Amino acid sequence: xxxxxxxxxHALRANMRPDQPFICxxxxxxxxxxxxxxxxxxxALEITPGDRVVMQVEKSVEALQLYLATVLAGGILxxxxxxxxxxxxxxxxxxATPSVFVTPHPEGWPVSRATTLEALAAAGRSGFKPxxxxxxxxxxxxYTSGTTGRSKGAMLSHRALASNAQTLKLAWHFTAEDVLxxxxxxxxxxxxxxxxxxALMAGASIEFMPKFSVERxxxxxxxATALMGVPTFYTRLLKAGGLALAATNMRLxxxxxxxxxxxxxxxxxxxxxxxxxxxxxMTETNMNSSNPYDGERRAGTVGLPLPGVELRIDAPEGxxxxxxxxxxxxxxxxWNMPEKTAEELRPDGWFMTGDLGQMDADGYLTIVGxxxxxxxxxxxxxxxxxxxxxMDALPEVLESAVIGMSDEDLGERVVAVVVxxxxxxxxxxxxxxxxxxxxxxxxxxIRFVDALPRNTMGKVQKNELRxxxxxxx
Length: 473
What we know:
Helices cover about 30% and strands about 25% of the residues.
């Protein structure tokens, strides 16, 4: 790549054949047409290098084009979950200070320019030349969960995204002959970067689905070769008839974003003859480890460090400790949070993930817990602090503690443990919380207690709560 090229765009176009199908299905689109659409959007953005473009739209092919348009124009994409409420969205807009906010409802936002995808597409023009951007320039900011305070914006460079996609393409043997079933959301790293970037870099095709559907995935399998999903995908597919026959043509099933139960791993193999490949990543690090494509895929583990990625456990050999990561895959720090960056990203390049892990003698990594109280439900990250703030603001609530409890379908479900100051019902509290929280964050259950268990320092003991509620702690 020369200094006059756009680092990430150049990498993603390396194996492009203009006439090759990129999007399959009822509305097919060639690579050439897909990139032309991205170039038109890039021209319509009218941004300068380094400007932030916040994207809060439903999943669509045009949303993927907007991602690439922002990269081509030298901007920094900030994707947001369209399920966020207005108050949630305002936080991100105030923190990211975008030049452009792309939303279906552009009225009344405190930004310099709010517009729709449709308006951008109508204003576009052909012939846009990519803005030169180097490996260290930022391509995206993804807001990640925390347990204290609000979300942090993880800054991801062109190098981090391009190098990780190249590593995964090779590790998982993706080629132009592959057809990837894409049923993941495009507002976080799994669907937006892992799935999309690998397909683009390999010149592969995508069966593009607006959302997860058991029926549509089963219909797509006979002509597809790979599926990337969260564990919930696999637990729900296992309940469907005809799975074994549908999976005959598939070569690879990948799971991530949440722990896959060993029982699901085994049942999937028994039903389909395929062994799910589980991997481990984070918003701040992209993907860190993977079970091997060729070799033993060990249930309950997230495999071996990926090529070019260093992993270590902050504990004596064989013991449980905090997982640390170093490599080109790492983020560049937290947006507007230099102190938090210095706290978690060391000067020698090692990032402290906060996840607890154990590495066996063969180098396979097992995630045994989280140093943070992060809840992962259906592949979505939920941080209890935000839910607790909403619950505690309700007039009937004295205090609350939010925990994740095991769920066969979602992996974890959100449960609020509440001390009341006036009488109310579970349904009333859930409905009230839902007015200020995205649906996936809202408690699915509420348990009433007389007092929250605390240690001598006054900190709520959430492990004790889980034990009391029958989740083992």
